[in-house]
Amino acid sequence: METKRKILIIEDEHDISRILRDYLTKNQYEAAVASNGQDGLQMMDMLQPDYIILDIMLPDMDGIDVCREIRRRNNIPILILSARGSDTDKVLGLGFGADDYMTKPFSLSELLARINAHFRRYDSLTLASERDRTDLLRLANLEIDKKAYKVSLDGNEVSLSAKEFELLHYLASNKNQVFSKSQLLDAIWGYAAYGDENTVTVYIRRLREKIEADPSHPAVLKTVWGVGYKFNHE
Ligand code: CA
């Protein structure tokens, strides 16, 4: 079974939070309630919700401060509930990180529609980036297949070690971007702090021998003097 999305409701008016919780639960979400700002922040850390509904008038903290504090910690979507009137201007006028807002009294079905729409957008973006990651990279006469861990040059398979493959794939997925040896060490080997940057030099040389027409005058894996390396592609 699919895991349910978790929504945290930070709202001190019990009638409203109960109605919200029941309604969201009926509509395939998991919902939890915090009745003040401090509890809300604590529950956010504990529950790791996927979405937050935040009342702006709370007994212990200004909802806007709660919103800022949430935003300081992560980029979870926040929908603000505000009372009709001056709050609305405040919510709209200040760029403090809320994604959406509704004025009380609000329609439950509209609230649900907005939440659903958020997750639909989110899912389609996530799917698109998964697809991009698994796609074949085709650059000049090279084809790099991340799924199969295979590289071919002019249609002929090139035999690479796993790390050689990962280094080439990393540079090719960020073509024309220059990376220092320590950045590459960190990205591919994951131990920049203790690693020997010479490792990168050695792997670049090996890759050049395998994919460059003239390894001593590389056209693809270029050295950028004093900085590092890049995958060169017009
Ligand atoms: Ca309130």
Structural notes for this entry:
- Pfam families: Response_reg, Trans_reg_C.
- Keywords: DNA-binding, Phosphoprotein, Transcription, Transcription regulation, Two-component regulatory system.
- The longest helix is centred in the middle third of the chain and has 27 residues, at 108-134.
- This protein has 2 domains: 6-106, Response regulator (Rossmann fold); 131-231, Arc Repressor Mutant, subunit A, CATH 1.10.10.
- The model has no long low-confidence stretch (mean pLDDT 86).
- It contains 8 helices and 11 strands.
- Helices cover 45% and strands 21% of the residues.
- The two termini are 47 Å apart.
- It is α/β, with parallel strands linked by helices and 234 residues long.
- The relative contact order is 0.08.
- The chain has a 5-stranded parallel β-sheet, sandwiched between helices. A 4-stranded antiparallel β-sheet has the order 6-7-8-9, covered by helices on one side. The protein has a two-stranded antiparallel sheet with strand order 10-11.
- The chain has helices at residues 14-26, 37-47, 63-73, 86-93, 108-134, 162-173, 181-189, 198-211, and strands at 5-10, 29-34, 51-55, 78-83, 100-104, 137-139, 142-145, 150-153, 156-158, 221-224, 228-231.
- Bound molecules: calcium ion.
- Calcium ion (CA) binds at residues 12-13, 55, 57-58.
